[in-house]
Structures are given as C-alpha cells and as structure tokens.
Design goal:
heterodimer, A: 324 residues, alpha+beta, Arc Repressor Mutant, subunit A, SH3 type barrels, 4-stranded antiparallel sheet, 39% helix, elongated, B: alpha+beta, 4 domains, 5-stranded antiparallel sheet, 12 strands
C-alpha cells in the first residue's frame, strides 16, 4: 500500500491542475500525475466527497465528467498547490543543475532561468538562488561539460566514438573504439557505459580519464542483450574481483580507514595490525597505491607484488639519483 | 472514514477559516473525528497535525481571542499557496526534461524533485506529461548515505540552523563517537562520499565531516526556532573548500613546491588541478605544477602515488624527503 501522504500530496496538486485546465482528459491527468486510470478515478471519487462543513451537497467539491473530460468546481480554496518543502526545492535544484551540467550553454540557459524564477517566487527560508547554489558542490568541474555533452550526443545518435583512454587499473593509455550506451554518475564521477570493440564487451569508462575524443559519423546497432533499464549501474572504480588474491597488513593508524574501503572482502586484526584481503585482475594500480602509503602498509602476499613494488620504488628513486 | 478524506477536509476547513478554529469545532465539524472518544480524538489529531507539517502544510496555532486563553488552528493562504509561475515555452521544455531525468530516481533527492514538479504541473500544463519517455541515457547510482540525514543537513545549511549529531571520527580519537554541534555552511560530494562542512563548536574551527560517519539522527540545536542561528562568513566559498586538497590541511605557513609530471600523466593533473594551481606545459607534453603545501606527509603520499610519473623539483628539503621515504620503503621490503 502506498503512503497515504503521497496520495494526499497528489490530490492537492490534481485539484488545482483541473481548476486551471478545465476539461483536461483522463489520459492527460494519468500521465501528468503518473497514475493508472483506476487510481485516477479513485482519486476523483475521493475529491468528490470532500469539501467544507457541513458537507451538504452545496458544500462539497463538484467533479463533472463529459466523456473523458474532467471538470472541477466549488474548490477555490484549492486554487493553488501547496508550496514546496525545502527538500523539494533542493531536489529540484539538484536535478536542474545535473541536467544543466550535461547540456551546452544554449540548452542550459532556460534551465537556469526556470530555476531562478522558482527560487525567486518562493523566497523560501529567506534563501536566494545563489545561497542555495553556494551550499552544494558536486563535481564534475566545468571542463567536463563539453565532453559530457558530446558523449550525450553520441549516445542519442548511436555514433561510434574513438578515444584515447587512461586505464587506472592497468596504468596505461590506450586507443579504443566504443559504442556509447549511457552516461552514469556514481562515486562522485561521471562514467561512460559503452561497448568496447576490442574486448567485445560492455565496459565502464571514467569520463575524466578520456584524454582525447572523436565522434565519428559512423553509427552502430545496440549490442544484443544489453538492456539498460534492467542492468544495474556501475561498477565504478577498481573492481574487487579477479584471479589474484592480495593480503595487506595495515598499521593501527590506517586500520580505521582500511575498514571503510569496500574493496576489501575480509579484514581481521592480527597482533595490533589489520590484515585485509582483496582480489584484483592486475597489480599496476596497487603498486602505485602502495608506494603512496609507504611503510604503513605491508604486503603479505603475493611475492610477485612485493617484487614489483620494489622495482617501482627503485625506478622512482632513480629520478632523485643526481644528488647525494 | 478514509484518512485521506479526513486530512483533505481538515486542510480545506483551516484554509477557509477566517479566524483560528478550536479543537472542539474541528471535532464536531469533520466527520472522521466525530465518532472517536475524546482521548482517541486527541491522539488522532496529534498524528494528523504532524503528518500535515511533514508534508509542509503551514499549520499555525494562534489564540482565538484577545484573552489568549484558548488556542485554535489556521492555515494562512499566503503561506500555503505556491505562487503562480509563468514559464516560457523553452523553460517548460527544460523542466519536462528534468521531469524525465528525475522520474526514475536518477538524482539524489529525486523523489522530492518529482513532488516539486507535480506541484508545478498546473503552471506547466501539458508540458508536465511524462509521455513515453526515451530510454534512460543518464543514470545515477543510488546514494549510500542516509537520505534523512542528508536532507536535514541540507535544509540546515540553507536556512543557517545549528545542528547536533554524534560523529565517529577516524583520527586520533581512535573511532570514539563524540557529540558535535555544527553550524553547517554547505555539503559537497567528493569521491562518491558526501561531506558537510561548517563551524564545529567542539573544535572551535571550520571542519569537514563525512556524512556516512554520523551515527545519530541530525537534530536542530533549537528545534522550536526557525533560524538563522548563525551567519556564514562572507568570505566562505564552498567550491573552494570542497577542493581543499589533503596536503593543504594543517596549520603552519604554506610553502611552494614544484612537481614535474611526465607526458603520460600531465594532462590529467592539469585538468584536475589546473584551475587551482599554476601549471606550465613542457614541449614534450609533460609539465610542472606549482603546489601549495602545508601537510608534508599528505603531499608525499600524493606525489608517490604517481610513481615515476612525478618528480618533486623543489624545494630541496621535500625532494630529500621523497628520497628518504622511498629508501625506507625499500629497506622494509628487504631482499625480495
């Protein structure tokens, strides 16, 4: 059973809608309010028995039908919908700015002016538009906008994209030809979900790691079996699966942090240190992470990782070899 | 009697009332309340009242007469009604797109955005039809933080209201949860996690808190008040604060460091930090970034995460520290 509050909220907007658009069709109302015809009829029946005390026929709201057209009278006190709650205003703001970040300037302008109008008219919580905007900060940075809007165009038009991409997991730059399927925002970054011609699979690419990008005139057919509506978004970041099992031991200073990292499948305390297990496909990204943590983290296994970390440390140290 | 009917009748009655309506009048007028015993009616009305307030209905309690002994209820129309909005055709189309974007719970707070757009529908007219929306090309991963906490913090930041919560920090307190009072200045999303930044009364300075580490509910410090409880400093810039880098934290005088990046990584560094720091491109596609450093450890962690793709050029002390860190690491690795 849906929350009765949702229904009340809907009724409080449905009445003003019909008051302003007398003769609106049932189909229109179903679509605007996102309800089935059955639910809409139940809503209208409920409105029909509401009104003012003493609830005689003269006090009740009038709902009339003419074919599939709806008319409402005697409900002037519901002439306008209820004001926004703060959360509603902020939610709308967020949705508008998310869309604006994906649009070019021409498409973003009416979004900004619409949200401006709304905030100005409401003056809710004495906050101006800028004040609300200034209290929320979401990446991506503006430089990503052009890339996002180009990728968005490629998704819509099913256009093949060629790109030079930096893979964090493999620590390498490669050229790829991909078929863009969707743009996804997760873990604080934008990602492109696309069919990768080389690996012949659907892959997820972080947008800010695309170095160069060229949209081709060539179009593609969507890969069979890739149903966007049902496939879960992601995965984002380094995938915590693969053929190699890694065991790391963290000092007590880093233990709390390590416990929060979703990539570890297991964490256990061993003599004052935290031993964490993870699985991965390749070691390159780990070498860089481990170099950064220094002696706070010790590699327990595999020996291959120790060896490669040592090589990486020596190679980095070589940059500083000129003085002593 | 249907609860929705009762609440709609209650709103209708209180909107039309010219003066505050007493509890007794409400009970004797609205069919749904009549049958209940006095105690049951009071409980019922209390619940209804709080549900209306949750929906944002401005329910006012006011004295009925000059003596002020008896109180009644009223919903002022000017506070209840959404002002009329006049959108251009372009704006209507833009809002229709937003409607599509949020209809699949794609953005955080999308349910609230949906509710807001429904309230705008009389002004949007047919523009608010969802229609046969195109398959989603944009998707947002679900939030991991608790939505009620985020909403409350956001409201508090916008309305300048002080909040209270229990926070488990990771630092030197070693995971002990502590009660905090915060004047929230804003929220930001960093690496997939929400943070709230503001003036922390426990520490007496501006601090960031990771929302997922808040263990309690977030309460307003003065629940009866409407704010503002504080003024955000005029020179505070969230967009700048949200980008304070780990090596910029910590007191002490900042010093400049120069780091050279290889052509393989320079483009990423320039994109990420080029708007904050000076970046000089080299002819080979590499480049040098001039960084402000306050916390040396954090700076070394960052530089070393680039391995041989980053080299500290200056100052010599920091250069030496990188060297020593690497030598220590090699020592601890022993002969592999």
């Amino acid at each position: 059973m849906a929350d009765p509050k949702d229904r009340i909220q809907r009724l409080l907007s449905l009445v003003p809608y019909v008051l302003r658009h007398q003769g609106a069709t049932l189909e229109e109302l179903c679509e605007v309010f996102g309800v089935s015809r059955h639910q809409l009829m139940r809503d209208l029946e409920l409105i029909f028995i509401c009104g003012q005390p003493d609830y005689t026929p003269a006090d009740l709201i009038e709902v009339d039908f003419d074919g599939n057209r709806v008319y409402i009278r005697m409900a002037d006190y519901f002439a306008r919908p209820l004001r926004f709650t703060p959360a509603e205003l902020y939610g709308l703001h967020l949705a508008c700015s998310a869309l604006a970040k994906l649009s070019d300037d021409k498409a973003a302008a009416p979004l900004f002016s619409a949200i401006d109008k709304i905030t100005q008219a409401l003056r809710q919580g004495r906050s101006s538009n800028d004040e609300i905007e200034g209290r929320m900060e979401i990446k991506p940075a503006s430089h990503e906008r052009a890339v996002l809007s180009e990728l968005s165009r490629a998704c819509e038009g099913r256009l093949v994209v060629e790109m030079e991409y930096y893979s964090y997991g493999r620590d390498e730059l490669t050229g790829r030809r991909v078929h863009p399927l969707s743009l996804e925002f997760g873990m604080g970054h934008w990602y492109l979900r696309a069919w990768d011609e080389r690996s012949r699979e659907v892959r997820v690419f972080r947008v800010d790691r695309i170095k160069e990008l060229a949209t081709k005139a060539e179009t593609f057919d969507p890969p069979p079996g890739e149903d966007l509506e049902s496939s879960p978004p992601g995965p984002y970041g380094v995938v915590g699966s693969g053929g190699i099992e890694i065991k790391l031991s963290f000092s007590s200073a880093l233990a709390g942090w390590a416990r929060e990292q979703p990539i570890f499948t297991r964490c256990e305390e061993v003599r004052g240190r935290l031993v964490c297990t993870l699985r991965t496909e390749n070691l390159s990204w780990l070498e860089r992470e481990l170099l950064s943590y220094g002696t706070e983290v010790k590699v327990i296994s595999p020996p291959e990782l120790k060896k490669r970390l040592r090589e990486r440390a020596l190679a980095t140290l070589a940059l500083y070899g000129d003085e002593r | 009697m249907n609860k929705a009917e009762r609440l709609i009748d209650l709103i209708a009655m209180l909107l039309e009332a010219r003066k505050p309506v007493t509890l007794e009048q409400i009970r004797s007028s609205i069919p749904g309340y009549e049958q209940a015993s006095t105690a049951a009616f009071k409980r019922m009305f209390e619940r209804d009242k709080s549900e209306l307030r949750e929906m944002g209905v401005p329910l006012r309690v006011e004295p009925v007469d000059a003596l002020g002994e008896e109180v009644g209820y009223r919903i002022p129309k000017e506070e209840y009604y959404l002002p009329e909005l006049d959108f251009t055709p372009e704006e209507k189309v833009a809002l229709l797109l937003v409607n599509r974007l949020s209809s699949g719970e794609l953005t955080p707070f999308s349910r609230e955005a949906q509710a807001a757009l429904k309230k705008l529908s009389p002004d949007l007219g047919e523009g608010s039809r969802l229609g046969n929306a195109a398959p989603p090309r944009l998707r947002f991963a679900p939030m991991r933080e608790r939505e009620d906490i985020l909403n409350r913090l956001w409201q508090a930041a916008v309305e300048c209201r002080r909040v209270r919560f229990t926070y488990r920090s990771l630092g030197k307190g070693k995971g002990r949860a502590q009660e905090r009072e915060l004047d929230p200045y804003g929220l930001y999303l960093e690496r997939g996690a929400w943070y709230v930044v503001g003036f922390c009364h426990l520490r007496g300075e501006i601090r960031s808190f990771r929302v997922s580490r808040i263990e309690s509910q977030v309460e307003f410090a003065s629940p009866e008040g409407e704010g503002p409880d504080f003024t955000r400093p005029a020179d505070f810039r969230l967009e700048r604060y949200a980008r304070i880098l780990p090596w910029e934290f910590e007191e002490g005088a900042p010093r400049k460091a120069r780091v050279r990046f290889s052509p393989r990584m320079a483009w990423q560094v320039e994109r990420d930090l080029g708007d904050i720091y000076r970046f000089e491109w080299a002819p080979d596609g590499g480049g040098i970034l001039e960084v402000k450093v306050r916390n040396e450890e954090a700076f070394l962690n960052w530089v070393l995460s680039f391995a041989e793709d980053a080299e500290v050029m200056a100052p010599p002390e920091l250069r030496n520290k990188v060297k020593r860190r690497l030598e220590k690491l090699l020592e601890s690795l022993g002969q592999v």
